[in-house]
Amino acid sequence: MAKMLMVDPSLCTGCHRCEMWCSLTKYGEINPSRSNVYVVRREPAVDVPVVCIQCGLCINVCPTGALKRDKKTMAVVVDKEKCVGCGMCTNVCPIGVLRIDKETKMAAKCDLCGGSPACAAHCPQNAIRYEVANKAAAKRRELWAMAHAVRNR
Amino acid sequence: MWYGFAGKLLRVNLTSGEFKVEELDKNELRKYMGCVGYAAKLLYQEMPAGIGPLAPEAKVVLATGAVTGTSCPSGGSYEVCYKSPLTGTWNQARSGGAFGPKLKYAGFDFVVIEGKAKEPVYIYIHDGKVEIKAAKHLWGLNVEETTDTLIRELDDPEISVATIGQAGENGVLYAALINDRGRAAGRGGIGAVFGSKNLKAVVVNGRGGIKVARPKEFAAAIEKAEQWLKNYPLSSIPTLGTVGLVSLNNSLGILPTKNFQETYFENADQISGEVLNRKYQIKRRACYGCSFACGRYTSVMSGKYATPPMEGPEYETVDMFGPICGVDDLEAIIRANYLCNVYGLDTVSTGMSIGFAMECYEKGLLTEKDTEGMPLRWGDGEVMVKLVEKIAHREGIGEFLAQGVKRMAEQLGPAAEEAAIHVKGLELPAHEPRSESKVLALQYAVSPRGGCHMHPNWASTWDFGQLDCGMKEFGMPWPPKEIQDESPQKGVAYRYVALQGEISEILGACIFYSWGTEGSCITPQLYAEIVSALTGWDVTAEELMLAAERSWNLKRCFNAREGFTREHDKLPKRFTKAIPNGPAKGLKVVNLDAMLDAYYEAMGWDKATGNPTPEKLKELGLEFAIMSS
Fold this sequence. Notes:
The structure holds two protein chains of two kinds. Chain A has five helices and nine strands, in the order βαβββαββαββαβα. The radius of gyration of chain A is 15 Å and the shape is globular. Chain A has two domains: 1-51 and 113-153, Alpha-Beta Plaits (2-Layer Sandwich); 54-109, 2-Layer Sandwich (Alpha-Beta Plaits). Chain A is an alpha+beta fold. Helix content of chain A is 28%, strand content 21%. Chain B is α+β, with helices and mostly antiparallel strands. Chain B has a six-stranded mixed sheet. In chain B, strands 8-7-12-9-10-11 form a six-stranded mixed sheet, with helices on both faces. The A-B interface holds A 10, 13-17, 20-21, 23-25, 28-34, 41-45, 47, 102, 122, 124-125 and B 69-71, 73, 98, 105, 157, 181, 207-212, 215, 218-219, 223, 226, 282-293, 295, 297, 308-310. Strand 2 of chain A pairs antiparallel with strand 13 (210-211) of chain B.
């Protein structure tokens, strides 16, 4: 069964290590603004890692067919030969985890590092995990529900 | 091409309102490695002796190091280097949060601030751009209000704001600079220096990132550090935060109590890390890149000490507003910590100043006439919280307390001297030199910024912690002699403890990660691996040691030029008297002179003055610091 990234914001301490590992793995530099995982750290005490859920909405809007699903990991990946950096995918992404990389001028997104995501491997608090799909889905349901319930508590 | 560093220094002159960007020289930077080392060179060469710390001529250096902003787990740090208005010595105040990393991502390793603005301003640094902007509308606002206003105004929630609060504006001599709302460059009065320059804040953000010379090798070295840190010996720091030390220290009789009159606090279990976690903690919070997350977000929901969510309190703060003032109410402590954060005050000096006043009141040296009718009794949390407010605004008795312990004692006369717990004017932190460790007594005496246990290291790692931190192979005496031993061997050991700690300071690393042994912390050897892969410089642990020694010597030279000498390397009288009660009853410091002799000798310093000899300075390539006399 395919695995997916699962996030537990209650464990996140806002350290941004995932962003650093992501940019180090992808570009050989440490630069949170060139990361495909995002930590939103706000006050008071909000720390939420935001990751691509590989939904594939971006595939449908890509005019050059540069976005496609990897058969092994089920991640949506960018074909560097075809991407023209038009930004349609960033427009349509519902959670804002696609970006046009400022140096390559191409779409950049999480490709699950080919099946061993660096962010999950190096999260010191276990807030980002790489789990089998139905466990990850259960967590997402929980988060979705809690995000809407919080005002009532 | 620069790896690991941004390669640029920003010089801002507030008098002229101009700034310029200077390229760093690689060889010169490598000689000092960066951060505090390079800042020591800058301040030594650019700030002649005798300049008033609050004069327009005084300079401030904001410094980052090689590992700042990188995935090296300790890389969340920056240091503010300046001459302290509290002590008149060299001072460096370290802080975590996001400020240091974002300064580097914005394209600068150092910011040198000079002069004095005519009207309040703030400096905005973003992606290589620099603006000096009006801050009239921010003057009088506290740290939270300033931060919120700037985020709104600059329309960027990801900026990092380092700002002063009312305490810095009002010139409280131990006012802090607070970044990211709850992280303090606390000690020595940098807030007052900012205030004297009409500088409200420095705001940074950047998307430049840090280039890595050998990414694969760097990733491997960082993975090694991550693995080693899983065996970290002071595991209470990640799990309970530093507050975990309250219970432990009390059980050993090393918890400073009632202005260091005692070392054991009966109600310590009411203010422990466990209680903080259970009743007041909202969540754990980390500095940029930190895998430990010692920070705690806490709040008090209701009652007379109701406090909105805020970072802290840390161990030091809990002791200062707790046992030091005889207070056993954790809610009062959290409130006092919050007020220090929003007004911009150093919690250690604030708590110690209040503790000192309470002891003076107990002894009749301060009366209700001096305190506007307010009795300053041990354990009165309400009065303590009120005093924090008064200090920040320098109102009534607060005006007196805002000068720090040394100046207060001078005004109250010889009878108050006994209660004045400071070295060179810096109030001592929450570690007991009589009972915790005797190397610590030595560190308090010689630390360049005064009574300090953190810069450059926590000396007790060696004999109290029984940790070699990778220094055995350099010749550090091993195994450590027992804690209470005051033989010259302690002086020899302190040389190694200090230089090992100084490596963190010159790399821009948090000191917590260097307490352990090979396989359980980031040793100098592992730092050398990390820095080599990062910068491509092929740095060895020996080279790091040498750079650390340069930095450590330059700071001593800075102080020597200001007139500090061996006679200032002394402890408060109280520590030569026995601890009256608790598990450590009867312990005292008796042999400081012999330890000092051994330490100076090990450093290659002159025993009479305690200052680096011309030969030593030549050996280190620091000829410019040889004083003509």
